[in-house]
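Internal tracking record. Fields below are filled automatically when a chain is submitted to the structure queue. Please do not edit lines marked as system-generated. If the sequence contains nonstandard residues, flag them in the REMARKS field before resubmitting.
Queue: standard
Priority: normal
Entity type: single polypeptide chain
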Amino acid sequence: MTILVLKTIGLMVLLGVGGFGGIVWLVPRLRLNILLTVALSLLLGIAVYTGLAQTLLFNESFEYVDKLVWLLAALGLASALVAAYKYRQRLAQPLRPRVSHVAVLALSLVVFAPIAIFSILYPLTAWDAKMIWMVKAKAIYVEPHLPNTLFDSALFDSAHKDYPLGLPTLVASHYRWYQGVSEQPVALTYVIFLWLIVLTVTGALLQFAGRTALGLAAALVIIFASGDFLYFAGLGLADIPLSAMFTVSLLGLWGALLSGDSGRSRLWLSLGGFFALASAMFKNEGAPFIILYALAAAVIFWFCRRSVKGGAPVFRVKWGRAAAWLLAYATVLLPLLLWHQRKAQLGYEVDLFLENVNRSVTEYLDRTIETVHWFIIELPSAQNWGWALLPAVLLAIAGAVVWIIRHRSGLMLVPLALLVGQLGVYVVIYIVSPHDLTWHVTTSIDRLLVQVVPALYLSTALLWLLLLSKKSVYSTD
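SYSTEM-GENERATED OUTPUT FOLLOWS
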């Protein structure tokens, strides 16, 4: 077990090095602090690796997934060295750890250490993990290609064959890395996703709040009020990596809004767009999120364009940088396209649309009321998210109201509007679902909240920091 845990940590370190090779080029422009640099590097490395591993799977070349790890790490290291040489003077200041950064990082490690131990010692418990994600990962490990005889067996009749293969492929790559199957060390990866979510949120608050006590206080509150992590650590749900992608996408929107520079805004929107696309590799809920993010980014882009004085062009195309972004986007877009093509060939359909449901207007209205009722019941649930969830919702609503009353720019409410839109999608899905509503809601609403709550914490905290701050909140630290 110990050697498998060490191999998991080694895999994550190598992927982090690969991701850092891309993020390091953004550090001087976006002025990323050390917390955001660590979080974004590892998330980027995991997303690119997952996308490329799926591409290998669809092309029956999954046996090369181990070599892919070393290739990404080597490319990342080479890229980092080139960037360090080019930006040797501009990298030192943003990456220089401040006392607040070190304190938050150390505290987060202390908080997550027992959670990591818990995840390793106890087996995965969630039905979704055992019957959807893990069973598919084992099938991919045994038969690393599609079509797959295990997928077509009766074992997979309730395994939602239409679901994206991002998480099963990532887990199957763990098994290839181990040269065997072991679920417990894989659970450590889920804890790393949880840790990266908290690191992203707290790093963003310190980034955008500067050295103010408010920023540090908000970061510390987020760490202690982020729900029952022990509850989610042993579940092995795809909603955790999906939540990480959603949170970084919202970070991209906030970075674009607060950057005060058109070129920097473009980079933030591009970064957020990459992770919005990556979210669709992990769950179907990522598909509507991509559309909502594109709309939000378009609104921000348009108003940033109009705000430029003298009609000067907002974004000048730099072809080298554009090619790099296109390559990055291709790593997550290509497997999505290949998977949709393969699903059509194999006849895998979304179960929400398998039955023709003819309901009256009254029945749809009743389901709407019942869905809202369940959301209200679950929001303040102390079992799953602790005391901070309901106050966070109330603070978000109050912050938006105060913002409007003070006649501030409505553009700053776009991130919250995106989250409301995503929740609206979930409500619509419940309403039109052919499944029994009570069963559908009670078995999934907690997982849906997991997807959006960290992004809600980030957006709510930033909104109030903006309201309470008397000066620019985008730190150069």
